[in-house]
Amino acid sequence: TPGGILTAEQYLAMDTLCDAVASGSLRITSRQGIQYHFVRKGDLHWLLATLNDHLVTTLGACGDVVRNIMCCPAPLADRQRADVAPYVQEVARRFRPRTQAYYELWLDGERAVTAMEPGEAPGEEPLYGTAYLPRKFKIGFAFPGDNCIDVYSNDIGVVPVLDGDGESLRGFTVLVGGGMGKNHTKPDTFPRLADPLATVAPEELMEVLATIIGVQRDHGDRHDREHARLKYLIHEWGIDRFRAEVAQRLRRPLPAPEPVVFEAADDHLGWHPQGDGRWFLGVKVENGRIVDRGAVRVRSGLRAVVERFAPGVRLTAREDILLTDLADRDRPDVEALLGDYGVLPAEQWVAIKRNSFACPALPTCGLALTESERALPGVLDELEVALDALGLAGLDVHVRMTGCPNGCSRPYTTEIGLVGRGKKNYDIHLGGEPVGIRLNDIFAENVPRDELVNVLRPVLAHYRDQRQSEERFGDFCHRQGVDPLRAQLGTERWARKPRDPAKENTNPS
Ligand code: SF4
User: Fold this and answer.
1) In ligand 1, which atom is closest to the CA atom of 369?
2) DSSP H/E element including 458
3) Three-point CA angle 276, 281, 286, nearest 5°
């Protein structure tokens, strides 16, 4: 689902399938995709074939290839979005694996409508060759000013450069070498933000992206999968050597990158005019789980709205959903219908819950060390109580949780990152910020689940007493530094400890 874009018909088909072959819920991912959970082996063929019947493919959802292409999902009817949208689709099409096996296994040997290039021989992998890439490869598009997709966390980030009028497309600034994952036991693995590489003309973009992927294909580490992402190649080479290699392959110098500025990372929740007389509504989906639970029947509510109003559907990088192309006159009825199913409007979520999300983790992710999606709501409930007691009710602080250090919910850029460490333990990272332009640091290591809020409480109290005017919690922690913060608060026992890797929990990714 490049850019997280679905039609109403596709959404309804996907919704129906989750009853037929899965666990009765859809799970929006942090890369604008959908997961089905607990699919029986015997149902896989039918599930994948039926998705393809609706022009949705799972090809490239996994494996050492370019994964789902991310893009800001806001359906604004401006010139820059109209100009950029074809590039997003083209990148998805161009870098999709050409493997025949997918079709033979899942689609009875038939080619999907969109998969083959004109004139292409079956089975050719013009970019991936015979061995594919050393590791998965992520590409995302963000628009100037709004880093809602966390563009710096991608192997390649693409940011349009607009003309002076702010409307028409003059080029793209290409960022390289971002990635979130690390391994707790390997100090040479780490999260990293992408570096600016170059600003290129629109007609150069595909060639430049293919060349970058080719450098990673040929020079990425194929001996150690935990050290195989592009970020490690760029970390070791330095951006100048990487740029020189790309330029040499292109047989021309790369223009210097123009500055990229992000002031915000919009959650796109609530009502927004699209600029074409229609509206879109961002609906908060707790941890991306589209499910009916008790009186809150998110899945039924969304289905009812999509059936009745046939909006476009878009998935966000924060695991929420946008219902698009709605007429002004329909807005009260859409709200009332969602309300009938207990779906809360975005403005009724307290800030700490509105802005937080988790990866799936247990019981559905084979790499999980501990809970995430099922644990975060309880942690946020406790944090909300703690904030109230500290006189910080309603504080806007962003929390992201994962069940392992692979970092699928991008916990390393946010204000409070809770990263699964062991069966019931987490590392607490502090000092990120909401725009995704700074990494946080480990404040406390290996904290039991039930101690998380107890460890955070004195930091929040210190923030309440010592913050500068309008200073965010993440900025405060960054300004203080995690080591001085621990020393001031007498919480050194949570500091990182020397360890015996043989005794650590880890996972095979
Ligand atoms: Fe990703 Fe790890 Fe969460 Fe699984 S447990 S979804 S690999 S962060």
Assistant:
1) 5
2) helix 452-466
3) 155
